[in-house]
Amino acid sequence: MSCTRRAIHDYNVYHPYTEIDSWMTGILIDNPDIVSIERYGQTYEKRDINLLRIGERTGAMKKVAWMDCGIHAREWISPAFCQYFIKQILQEYRVHGSRMAAMMKEMDFYVTPVLNVDGYIYSWLNGTRLWRKNRSPGTGSCSCYGTDLNRNFNVTWGTIGVSTNCCSETYGGTAALSSPEAASVTRYLEQRKADVLLFLTIHSYGQLILVPYGNPNLTAPNYGQLMKVGLAAAAEMKKVHGMSYRVGTSPDILYPNSGSSRDWARLAGIPYSFTFELRDNGTFGFELPEEQIQPACEEAYSGAMHIINHVHREQFNAAVSVATASLLGALLATCVTVANNAF
Description:
alpha/beta
């Protein structure tokens, strides 16, 4: 049954939200032992914001790798990647003795396939393919719709690379977290941030891996490590189809901005936070052809998994080392006690 259901969902085409929602239900039905669906908020138009939580149910508090897609409505390759990513990690988990099977004993994946549900649905209507923002109405005398969700998080909000004009594509909202979508992510992760090791937010386009911060006057305390891991991920991505991805802060390789989810996550204490800007470099832009979905997802998966593997090894190898050192210390203390008693 599970093989039949997965075959029905075509990972090489773009899907409207109703199909993605049905796919999420199918993933749950096919994998009830390791998958659950969590509703953690609602959009402005009162649609549920759901994530797939994937990992073994051990009964213990586990570490978390977060991924969200579709924060900007027109970036259709982003939700396509989240679907591909989930398919791949589930397939790898079922391989006996795989690294993924071991990883899911210690860490859960929280994946939101479409964060900006209202905007994504709107982008599928006639003439609205390039819609970016959510669908909240303007305030006061401004009749335009939408807040840029990636300018609405509570980190240097409204200071740089953002507009106060509600008709602008980079309108940051009336206040930090004025959008229910950004507020939902913040509220959900604030309760779990001590356990979140990694925050990945998937965008297009430009072939970039962005590290905090968007404000040129701020530097992440682990900037060097973020760059090292990001550059290694870009190298892995290039091996897949020869595509080059640049790595750096947004001011260094794109443009300054404020209020992004990536920056909020790092400021909140999540140690590894990255934005992936997927294909391409502007030939097709946001309207990436469907024949490029698979190669784009394959290279992005390689980069994402490099980062995930690094974060997992760093966390759990260190824990093993501490436990081993503690055990050796206890054994040494016992030996000294025994030796002293002998005399």
